[in-house]
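Re: Re: token formats

Sure, here are both.
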Amino acid sequence: MFVVSACSAPGIRSGSRDGEQVTGVRNAGTGSHGGKQHVVVIGAGLVGVACALWLQRAGMGVTLVDRAEPGSGASFGNAGTFATYASAPVGTPKVIRGLPGMLFDPAGPLSIRWRYLPKLAGWLARFARHSTRAEVERISRALHLLLDRAHEGYAPLLRDIDSASLVRSKGCLYLFGTDAEFDAAAADLALKARRGVAVEVLGRDAVRQMEPAIAPVYAKAVYFPDATHTIDPGALTLDLADLFRRQGGRILCDSVERIEVVDGRATGAVTAGGDIRGDQFVLAAGAWSKTLAATLGDRVPLDTERGYHVMIPRRDVVARPVAWSRGGFYLTPMVEGLRVAGTVELAGLKRPPDPRRLRRLVAGARHLVPDLPEPVSEWMGFRPSMPDSLPVVGRSPTVANAIHAFGHGHLGLTLAGITGRIVADLAAGRAADPDIGAFAPDRFRRFRLG
């Protein structure tokens, strides 16, 4: 069955495993935080939690609000990889050539639901514009600015929790079924090399020594030795949220309907339980950020990539994340067993999960590791994705005291820490490091690329 997470009204357990209810202050402006600036962060995924922690480190009072428990969305269900090697965008000339076929293979690694195509047309047009060779190079350089700082964005946060029990440094393997598949990845590997990513090409014997349980169905592999992963991304998010709470942060369980704006400034996050007042507002609501950004007057071409996973009760299969290039999924060792996660489905937020994609994940896993038992759980979640594969990080162009931090696509887990640090710099009036011009909320309008 599918995993569904929700928080308890009127409070939330907020990452605390002792069941404590946290109710928060609704009218929480400067005066209610001892003269501190008060920031309201909307969205308690890993990006939102990291923003909240960095804002605390900057000396600000922070309220974190979400309709569900921290880390219960994409932060819970991802493949668990800190993919600092992922310096190539989703859109490439090769992907564009394959777009027509995506309409005819609903269970493929990257697919488009027919009924969603009319709503997706504008996003796909922008996606195609950003998939040229020149754009791939530009986007890769921009991604590298964040990926190169991903670890330093996490380091001070992880020091304050027992991260050693949740994070492993064992690298990541990408398997290619044939020499032709490996050769087709040459452009991507060259791009990574230009960004300084450590890459090792391995033959069958080397892979067999690293991962003996994997059947010899591959011709070559690529190993990223610097990659790390978490064995429980949901628990990692909860631990960080609990750290935020213990340091005086407030976590509210409520659904934000809009952000109220008066005379060009955001004054409150409007919820069913009342307005949440603050001095600054950070929008980190993942796949639901587009609608909330519109209440500020900001139009962003955000859509969603629906990702899936199944959990198989075998913890001894692989020692590190192993990706199957042909299938578009990872095998990742987790606390609860083997997570088979991945694929991309463009179908929006409202349509039900497609069981064919789950069956394909199981079949792909069994191709690599025969005789795996039946899954014990299934999951589908939403990656917030921009057509240029770059997140939206920066101040709102229309509302001076609002900051955007969403649209990370496949890299939310990887880039949460550095995104939080950048947001804290912006909220404190400091210059962001690195330069964030490529991630500006109005970049499509400004450069006339969308």
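Second one below.
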Amino acid sequence: MSVSGEVRQSGRVVFVTGASRGIGRGIAEYFLQRQDRVAVGYSSNRELAEELCRSYPNGFPVCVDIGSLASIERSIATITEYFSEDVSVLVNNAGIAQEKPFLNISESDWERMLKVNLQGPFHLIQQVVPAMMKAGWGRIVNVTSIGGQWGGMNQVHYAAAKAGLINLTQSTAKVFSAAGITCNAIAPGLVKTDMSAAELQTEAGREKLKNIPVGRLGTVEEMASTVYFLSSDEASYITGQTVNLNGGMFFG
């Protein structure tokens, strides 16, 4: 383990889950461009993850099912073996979403949502924290959502899981900050991705855009730069916080 209590800003081993597309891909690429070694986590989009890593020799595609503890354990072991070093920055970005009316959410819908969006990040944190404690340095950033702050209408189970992730962030910070491990979260609002582009073609989507005080969507780069800062030595006194990246949609 080459990272000891002494700070290091580049060349770290970073694990970004859900990094084949969207916000996760932007975060992974941001770290890659700054010479960190990045495990690009993916579930099914292998080609996209490998494409990103072909552009950056410091990238490594890693298949992981966030809903499976066994898969999480294998991915961490694979990353450690490949880079000959433990993960020192974990970005819990992977997740699932589902729009369903409250009364139509099934037991399996609820269980799957919490298993992937809350239990998965918990298990990942459990897996990387021991090495971080040994090193006396670590950074964990969880990607939650504005939905976890103000609730949901057609995705109540999603909002509940993201609210739980905010509390997991705070609890992790309380337990491990004294060991040099900070844990923070970002809560994006509407971000310009392929998924949001489709949504904005609808009347409901255009109405959402009107209600953003800044008057525009957030960018993937804005999300990524914030995650990068929270993973830096300059952010060592920031822990247990949820950074709102929503253009003024929510101030809580």
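The longest strand covers residues 181-188. Confidence is low (pLDDT under 50) at residues 1-9.
- S.
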